[in-house]
Amino acid sequence: PMTSAVLENRGTVDKYMGDAMMTFWNAPVDDPHHAMNACKAALAMVTALKPVNEMLQARAIAANRVFHELKAGIGINSGRASVGNMGSKQRFAYSALGDTVNLASRMEGQTKSYGISVMISDETRQQAGEFAVLELDLLTVKGRSEPERVFALLGSPEEAKGAAFRDLRQKHNEMLAAYRARNWDAAEDLCVSCK
Fold first, then answer.
1. The CA-based dihedral angle spanning residues 102, 105, 107, 111, taken in that order and rounded to the nearest 10 degrees
2. What is the pTM of this model?
3. pLDDT > 70 fraction of the chain, expressed in percent and rounded
């Protein structure tokens, strides 16, 4: 289901690495909407896990085992990268390399720390359009000295227009402002109201 979500949204599957997969957009075929399509694929991947988890939970109950929910951790960044056949005469593969790719990987690794499924960079947010996103933090990752503004991708552009999300975004932004002003009590109260 995860591979289908990528392919149905014009993505390229680079490789599978254990329980992870690396994908990219805008190559080998140009895609002027690559950031939007990557975000759509990520949301489809999160949605695809729901029936899989329901099936696994039913199997666990039937076998009298503990159910362990599968969760996705997805990092999306947009920018320039080197894409093509990489390697040597003995072994090469079509892949993407570069700082942009490294940042996406580091962001994926931080999704668990923030308790979210999909983290996107500010560059992706700007290119993708009006998805339902909330700013998370200024994140400094290994290999970079400057922080990157990162966002949680929570829903589609249609969901972003809804009153419930607009209300959540306003409360969240107030919480973030209080947090950054080190007004801890107000930030904590606003954080509770965001749930």
1. -170
2. 0.92
3. 100
